[in-house]
Amino acid sequence: MDPLLRRAIVTGLLGSAAGMHVGLVGMLASFQRRETIADYISLGSTLPIVIAVIIGWRAGGPMRHPHLRPAGTQALVLGALAGAAMGVALAAFAIVITTLDIRWILANASQSTADVLQYGQGAGLGSAILILSSTALGTAGAALHVLPGPVARALTVGALVTLITSLMEPFLGAVLRNLSLQVIERFLYARGGLTVVGALIVFLLVAGATYAWATRGAETRRRYAGMPADRQRVGKIVAYLALTGLLLLLPQIVGQRLSEVVGTVGIYVLLGLGLNIVVGFAGLLDLGYVAFYAVGAYTTAVLTSAASPAFSPELPFWGALPFVIIAAAMIGLMVGTPVLRLRGDYLAIVTLGFGEIARIIFLSAWAQPLVGGAQGILTIPSPLPFTNHPQSIYYPILFFCVIAAVAATRLASSRVGRAWNAMREDESVAEATGVNTTTFKLLAFGLGAAFGCLSGAFFAAKIGVVFPQSFDLLVSINALALIILGGMGNIAGVVVGAIVLVGLPELLREFADYRLLIYGAVLVSMMLLRPEGLLPSRIRRAELHDVVGDDEEMYAREAGEETGRPVVSS
Amino acid sequence: MPGRRPRLNLVNLFLWGLGGTIIALALIGSFLTIQQGRLSIEQWQSLIVAGIALGSVYALIALGYTLVYGILFMINFAHGEVFMWGAFTAFFTASGLANAGILESSPVLAFGLTLLSAMITSMVVAILLERIAYRPLRGAPRLVPLITAIGASLFLQYTARGFYGSGVRAYPNFGLFGGDIQLGPLNVPVEDAVVIVSAVTIMLALYVFINRTRTGRAMRAVSEDKDVAAMMGINVDRIIVTTFAIGGLLAGAAGILYTLLFNQVHFFMGFLPGIKAFTAAVLGGIGNVIGAALGGMTLGVLEALGPNLFLTGYGIPAPNQLKDVIAFTVLVLVLIFRPSGFLGRKEST
After folding, report:
1. Which residues in chain A are contacts of B162 at CB distance < 8 A?
2. Which residue of B has its CA nearest to A285?
3. Which residue of A has its CA nearest to B134?
4. pLDDT tens sequence across B213-267
5. What's the total number of domains in chain B?
6. pTM for the whole thing?
7. What is the ipTM of this complex?
8. Measured by CB atoms within 10 angstroms of the end CB, which terminus of chain B is less buried, N or C?
9. Which CATH code fits A255-536?
């Protein structure tokens, strides 16, 4: 068979497998309760729609082995074919799960899942709609290769931003209400999604702006670069001031309920910044990072809470903080020293073990007299004794996040940072060139522990209680996933990662159940497609692509594709 | 680094001190426990038997880690999930057979079918894992496949949660494994005996496969040196897939044997056995097949005896809560004192 044709069908079937997967884990049915575009598209049906566009795009695009580039109409046909293959497979799947009763095995192989796929129109009409719509959407996906670059980009970005705006309804809606802009809110949103008019407006605005930037952006950038240096600096200062103002006013802007979420994101930013030092800078994959977080939280709880069983003179939060740092240094050494000689995988699994040991000990009856066992420790006082306002804890968290970010940036470009870089790239070579790996590894663990413990302290103070259940492996996984998504070794990446992976699931209740499933998918696909993360640090990207880039030919080909030049074979 | 004498520096001093303290505490604890005589000889014996049964399950999982490590020098973090998927399939097969009445009429057939279904599912999961998550990343920096493996592990876990629900499901009783066998002075529950015998048989079969067949020879060649093996005409990619497939088969068998011992399935059940089996593989010397078997048995016995033997002497309440700590402590101790394990090659860390 023609390789392009085969790829189109295989892509379509893979797309249908993805559709079946989201159906069987229950995403389709549980997302059905919300709308993406009110009265027209539900959140559940959005998933197969997006999958169909993606597979159409994949099927219509250029191929690497053998090197083929489908021409205009051919690309459209391939996209349509992939979409059709997916539609047929999914239609069959929907019919199978409704006729065979296998719900005792697969709880979500139910009528409601099939309904989402069949757009609620029953087996006959629904299947026809499904197949036709997937074909059309596949064609649309392939059309992105055919349309001129700026147009395709404008359409893609416009559609993506519209989708995100719709998904963000719980957040944006609440912000608009909080700022008493109910008029806009009612105009844009209805029943958990965008209204048709709202969607059109968002789409047109974003697509227009993207188109303008794609066609005239280069010129604007050139004009900015041509400006005198002091004008540029003024621009930067204004931008920083605006950012600072936004950060300071954030709790007021987003309102009370969302401030809670913003605080949680801040705690994870702090956690991520700490883990970033250990993993991103020093290259030590620590899977037991939760141990630091737990020690910080428990130290705070034991020292400050009146309900703590062991320690009676109660300190205020800020009085306990120095002890938290001391505890952090100790636990950093405790964890760091035994793993000094281990590399890569071994280090990961031993630290994972430490994380579990910490949790088991905090939970055990043995340690109960000190830390309260399964009952935990209650009534931890707030760090700000004078205001009891729930929004106020945001400010100390923000303060420490800024300190941590500045410290991390300064460290990264210092002698220490260079030593970590060298160690991460090749430990033996680093040692041979005179880097004392013992010191620098312990330093990384110590600093990581300090930030982790601080983060834990704020967690304890924010929630007001600590339970051993709060400190399971998932905290470590969360922190790891967020720095990987954002881009290892990069501070802005940590913030973005924390917002996406911690903030969003708190807001989008539909996703909360599938949070870890999505994390897993994110980790795997990031490593396969973009190991340097969304916002990579320069060094990291060079590193990853240097090693992967042994295959020079492939890169030459890719470069040829991007610039549209013919491929030069060497 | 052949023949390098460990240097006397602060770090080594600290590590030896730490290790020495832990071992001394364990020995003193055992002495105190035995002196207090809390458990009878029969109780110790049954603990040991249970430990060997559990250990042979660990050994089966550990073989999967060791085989893959021997060839790719990577830890397949998602191996625990391969095991879990096998156990889940076994659960549904067994329930289906129980509903159809086959479980009562011919239990041996039912057990065979269940075992088969578990092994095949785990094999398929392991092959898909290799194909989708690991193969594209060969030659990438070490951290990259490791993170992929963690991601794949989460994905498999929560896919199972989505597919099968988050509850704990109780296993149907095969009805075939009640009662005890009297072996001299020992009283062995039939379930434990079945687990031990099946596991040992499978391990022997694996040993023969690796040492006596062409594919086994190719596997050994690839683990020795991939490039040279490729030059000798071995299809390295195919051997790697085969290795994952065998690891999967063993994990599937382990899945059903584990559920024979514990009688329940749960989407998170792969995590702890996975980590412990990894510990067992390291204990025996990662990359070494016999080592994995030995390590698994040792760890199982240590875990069964440990809390009662080491901790009750100190009067620690509810020592069994701390039994998972023992596996991790063993792991840390092995990595400090003998990173190459019982039988491992010296350069294995």
Report:
1. 24-27, 108, 514, 517
2. B143
3. A528
4. 999 999 989 988 888 999 988 999 999 999 999 999 999 999 988 988 888 888 9
5. 1
6. 0.86
7. 0.85
8. N
9. 1.10.3470
